[in-house]
Amino acid sequence: ARKGGHRPAGGNPNRPRFWGRHAVYAALDNPARTVRKLWITHEAAREIVLPDGVPVTYADVADLARLVPSDAPHQGIVAEVD
Length: 82
Known about the structure:
Radius of gyration: 12 Å
């Protein structure tokens, strides 16, 4: 169970989420995996070519922290996948 805070707009709590550059980049590169939504900081967005057709929400570090387990190293990028 999560403690407090709010969930940034959008997203499906039943879909798995990946966070951190390595995991998210691997999901984006995997043709068998569908990325449904991407949350990213402006800083992290400068280091990646954002994929076409994936809704992108720019968020700050605190917003991303609410999307993942506490103390998870999201590195400024979180993906919701099927």
